[in-house]
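Figure 2 data, in text form.
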Amino acid sequence: MVSESRTAADPAPDAAPAVVDHNPPDEFQWLEDIHGDEQLSWVAEQNARTDDMLHSAGYEDLERSVLEVLDSNDRIPMVTKRGDFYYNFWRDEEHPRGLWRRTTWQSYQSSDPDWEVLLDVDRLARVEETEWVFAGASLLRPDYARALISLSPDGGDAKAVREFDVESRSFVEGGFDLPSAKTSVSWVDRDTIYVGTDFGPGSMTTSSYPRTNRKLRRGQSLDDAELVFEVEDDHMMAILVRDLTPGYERDIALDIVDFYSRRNYVMTDGGWQHIDVPDDVNVDLHRDWILFRPQTTWQLQGTTHPAGSLLAAGLDDFLAGGRDLTVLFTPDENTALQSWSWAADHLLLNLLQDVSSAVRVLTPGPHGWSEAALDTAPPLHAVDAFAVDDEDPEAGNDYWLVVSGYLTPTTLSRGTIGGSATEVKTSPSYFNTDDYVVEQHFATSRDGTRVPYFQVCSKDLELDESNPTLLSGYGGFQIPRTPAYSGATGRSWLERRTAPDDDGNRRGGVYVVANIRGGGEYGPGWHRAALQENRPRAYEDFAAVAEDLIERDVTSRKHLGCEGRSNGGLLVGNMLTGYPHLFGAVSCGVPLLDMRRYTKLSAGYSWIAEYGDPDDEEQWQFISTFSPYHNLRDGVDYPSVYIYTATSDDRVGPVQARKMTGRMAAMGIPNVWFYESTEGGHAGATDNRQAARLHASSHEFLWKATTGQL
């Protein structure tokens, strides 16, 4: 169902933040000492207080119910094909840290595949007395007999890298072994790797990522590794990889200036050759081809290529100076390119059309490129099509098709381009989806922009302002929020029921996802519309959706809660301080909140391209308007708030959440709750048990707050 509503998301006159002092005293800067005894004692006191609030009758049952979904053996074990095997990483009740394993295609198709366990992370953690978290494996082509395995000691971004023998299922004695750091690695050959890591003073950028890449040969120490590529220390990071595609082996280097600007280089006989395009044009090299996706309008030899388009050229011709580009995709006001994937003879494009998915197949030929549609799924669903293994001589044009919707459990199919797809795996439903309906609505933001949002609710929803409603959003870094099935949310929110009213009715929750600017739902333009000085557009969009829900009588202020994580935590932090009249509850996870000091905390410097530089006083003038930590003020009726974070988060860090909580408590603002887990990194969880706790605690708080139980 699709409907359209109009609203105007202006802050209430008494709620708009009155930012006067741009440099107030920071009385809670002492909480920035992440591991200090006094600071951790403060955390422990806050955690105990929050546990007392959460752990009332029924909470343990809720957490167990969510964990049952996350641990279910009926989940689809998604796989990656490498050579003759299909690899998967799996966590469940028996293996909370997880198993890295593989199987054959014949076995994978069965209802109970025969898995060969390569690495038991729980066993490794016990033996080494380190709470290892699996962070990925890079297999060496063409035989895939060796792997570089990344392991985080606490779930953070810093990770150790160790060489692993796949056939013997053991770490290689005397093999590559890199200490824990923010590290990138790439195989060069069996005895050589490229490494970007902390080599000592001067080797890391201001953003806390590697600024140098070096060639490390077997038996060498890191100190002896040969410098191959480096970038300026105020850039975000340097990345160096060896493309090992048979017949197309080459070195590729990236100077990532910031999140949206990068310079691409390919090694030729004359050394590093810069791929001569603007820094904000994304580049993809694949065999003989080079693809371009501009983030802003690109003028090239008299032709205008709009932001979000996709262009192709022959790689050798382009490097030689040719500029004959083929347009593969041009966006329109409703359609954006989400991703693409190369099969052996085709290119798969995943599109979003008003946040519903569509897939196109492009095929190069002697007379240009042809295009065909790939049959996928109904409207208001998310579909992802991607190649199985473009190097497989027999299955190079096979593709995976993953389909999901708010009320449609995920299905995994496999097909061959030009043929049909066959369903391989289906996730069960963990709640009664027949009782609910998905609708798409459009609100109108303050500047007239139409903002889509999804509403998942009971088929017999009563529009009487009384429904507990959870509004979720993100709105940053060009990341779209697309339809996705969540058995955990179905159980913890949609199926949950209030106490009977005077007529004996028990209401379930309404779940809403807002597709606000700053995200990627409509391509780069939708994202850039909320960059830096335009960041408030994202908050106006979110507020417009909240007002639309209220105007449509779905809910009311006291029954409306919102949640967001990371950049989404900044989003809901601004709902707290800028639009408190719209919400009864705010759940704010691993958030940015202190935008004055965010560039000096953890990896914050890398996000200047998104938010601006607070050390530039002119930019601080606009940043200060969306810094929740600085926009708290006395005399405001703030909604209840739950702020959670992780000590081991080395991306955003826990200190912003701590400081916001400390300041609100000092101001005497009631119903402020805080929780900090000791591990889990930016995800907030290292295993399913912790993930269930995180999910259940957020929804328990929101449910209590929006049903008058706090």
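Caption note: The first strand starts at residue 2 and ends at 4.
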